[in-house]
Amino acid sequence: MADDATPSVERERPDPKQVDRKARLLVPPHRPPKQDPAERIANWEEVSFLFDPAEAKIEANRCIQCPAAPCMKACPVHNDIPGSFWLLERGDFDGAANVFRQTSELPEMCGRLCPQERLCEGHCVVGKHALPVAIGKLETFVTEWQRAHGGIPAAEPVASTGRRVAVIGTGPAGIAVAERLARRGHAVVMYEAWPEPGGVLRYGIPDFKQNKAAVDRKFKDLHALGVEVVTGMHVGTQISWATVRAGVDAVFLGIGASEGSRLGIPGEDGPGVITATDFLVRANLAPEHLPESLRVPLGSPRRVVVVGGGDTSMDCVRSARRLGAADVTLIYRRTEAEMQGRVEERMHSREEGVLFEFLAAPVEVLRNVEGGVRGLRCQRMELGEPDDTGRRRPQAVPGSEFDIEADMLVTAIGYNVEPEWGEILPELVRDRWGRFVADPETLATNLPAVFAGGDDVNGADLVVTALADGHRAAEAIDRYLRNAGPTRPPVGAPEAPGRKLIGDSSLLAK
Ligand SMILES: Cc1cc2nc3c(=O)[nH]c(=O)nc-3n(C[C@H](O)[C@H](O)[C@H](O)COP(=O)(O)OP(=O)(O)OC[C@H]3O[C@@H](n4cnc5c(N)ncnc54)[C@H](O)[C@@H]3O)c2cc1C
C-alpha cells in the first residue's frame, strides 16, 4: 500500500471545532492486557496482546483531533494518526488501517517496535493532561485486524517500466525501497545474506517483541508485487558486486550495521563471551533458519551478564531469562536517564527479574581454570562533562572495582557497518566510522545510480527511520530511472571512480 501513487483513502475529516475536546480528555485511558511476567518468561510469545476492538474504539476516541497534529510531525514517516483514529473510533477498521499503510510499509511492526514515548506519543497533546493516546498499540491492532479480516487491498497492476533495481539487504530500509519501486512498475531483486529475509526484524528482534509470522506476511506481500528475493546470498562473497551491478539500472544498499563492537578488555576472547547478534539469533531461531556456523546450541547458562544500554541489550537480558538463566544482570556505564532504548522494554525487563547495574563498566572477563567464564570485573563510573553527543561522559572511579559472577557474557555495545565493504566497493565514500555517505535528501551515494539508507548510513537506529530513508531513496531512484537513458553498465565494466569525499554528505554531488 505505502506509496504516494496509492489513491488516498476516502475519509471524512472532523472539523476540530466540533470535536468536544474536554469530554474526550475525561475518557479514561485503555491499554491492551499483557502476559503475566511469571508466565511469559517461560515462553517466547509476544508480551502484549492485541486491543479488544471495543476498547480500541474508546481509546481512539481519546484523540482530540488537534489540527497541528504534533504526533504526526514527530513520526519519521508522518503517519496521519488523527485521520486514522477518526475512522477507527467509528468502527471503520479497514479505512483506519489503510491510512497507516499509505505512509508505512510496516505499520504492524512499528506499532510494536517504535520508541513511541519519544516519537508520536511523546508529542501527543493528550499526554500533557493524562496518559497519551496508545498510538502504537492502536496502530498494531488496526493493521493486524485488517490482516485477519480480509487482508490488505491488492495492488493495482502497473505497467512495467522495463527498469530493474537491485536492493541489497532485506531489512526495513530495503523493504520500503523494494515495495515502493515495485508499485511504480520497476522490476526489483533483493539480495539477502541470511537464509531468510527480514534483516533485524527476523535476525535480531526476539519473538516476544515481534513475532516472525508478521515478517513472513510482509514478504508474501512483496512476492505478490513481483519482487524477487534471493536469500542466502552475500553480495561480495557469494555473488560479486560487479555481477549484481551489471544486471540492473540502479542499486540500493540497505545492508544495516551488524558488526558488533568489542569491549577491548582482557579475557574477552574465548568461550562464554558472545556478541548480541549471535546470542539473539541462536536463542530465538530454530537451527534450520540459521547458517551452519550458528547452529551450535547456547546451552543453559545460569548467570548471564549483558553489557550495553540500548534495545539490543534489553532483548538479550530478556532472552537470557527465557533460556532459563536465574541471574541476569545488565551493566551500563551511564545512568538510566541516558539509556537509548524504549522505556517499556526496561519496565518489562525489571518485571521479568533482570537486575540493572548503572554507572558500571567492565574491565576484565574472569575465567576459571578450564577457560570458561566465571565472572566479570567491573569498575564504578561517574558522569563528567558532556561529550560531543551531548550526553555526560562516564569516567572511572579509581579503586572501585567489583566482581559479578557469571557463566556467560553478552556484548551489546554498539553496531557498525561491516568493514568488508571497504574491499567490496572501495570507491564508495564512507565516513570515519565506515558508514556509507549519502545525500540526506536523495540518499544518493557518490557512485552513479547507487543509493544507500537505513543503518548503513545512520548507524544503529530504528525501524521507522530506516523506512523513512527507504521512502526518500525510492522517490529519488524512481526519478532517476525515469529520467536516465540506458544505465546498465556493460558486464565487467569498472565503476566510474567516485569523487574523493570524506564523511560529510553535504559534499556529495547533487
Ligand atoms: C537486537 C535488536 C533489537 C532492536 N530493537 C528495535 C526496536 O525495538 N525498535 C526499533 O525501532 N529498532 C530496533 N532495532 C533497530 C532496527 O532493527 C534497525 O535500525 C533496522 O532494522 C535497520 O534496518 P536496515 O534495513 O537498515 O538494516 P537491517 O535490518 O540490519 O537489514 C540489513 C540486511 O542486510 C543484509 N546484508 C548485509 N550485508 C549484506 C550483503 N553483503 N549481502 C546481502 N545481504 C546483506 C543483512 O543480513 C540484513 O538482513 C533493533 C536492532 C537490534 C540489532
Characterise this structure.
The chain is α/β, with parallel strands linked by helices and 510 residues long. The protein folds into 3 domains: 16-148, Orthogonal Bundle (Fumarate Reductase Iron-sulfur Protein, Chain B, domain 2), CATH 1.10.1060; 164-258 and 417-507, FAD/NAD(P)-binding domain (3-Layer(bba) Sandwich), CATH 3.50.50; 262-413, FAD/NAD(P)-binding domain, CATH 3.50.50.60. The chain contains 17 helices and 16 strands. The strands form 4 sheets. Strands 3-2-1-4-16 form a 5-stranded parallel beta sheet, with helices on one face. Strands 6-14-7-8-9 form a 5-stranded parallel beta sheet. α13 (311-322) links the parallel β7 and β8. α5 packs antiparallel against α6 (93-103). The longest helix has 21 residues, at 463-483. It is globular. The two termini are 30 Å apart. The model is unreliable at 1-8 and 490-510 (pLDDT under 50). Flavin-adenine dinucleotide is lined by residues 113-114, 168-174, 191-194, 199-200, 204-205, 209, 234-236, 254-256, 258, 280, 311-312, 315, 454-455, 461-464, 466.
What topology emerges from the helices and strands here?
Layout lengths: L20 H5 L11 H4 L12 H8 L9 H5 L6 H9 L3 H11 L3 H7 L21 H14 L15 E5 L3 H12 L3 E5 L20 H13 L3 E3 L10 H6 L3 E4 L5 E2 L12 E3 H9 L18 E5 L3 H12 L4 E5 L11 H9 L3 E3 L2 E8 L5 E14 L5 E5 L5 E4 L2 E4 L3 E2 L4 H4 L25 E3 L2 H4 L4 H21 L27
Parallel strand pairs: 1-2, 1-4, 2-3, 4-16, 6-14, 7-8, 7-14, 8-9
Antiparallel strand pairs: 5-15, 10-11, 11-12, 11-13
Helix pairs in contact: 3-5, 3-8, 5-6, 6-8, 7-8, 9-17, 12-13, 13-14
This protein binds flavin-adenine dinucleotide.
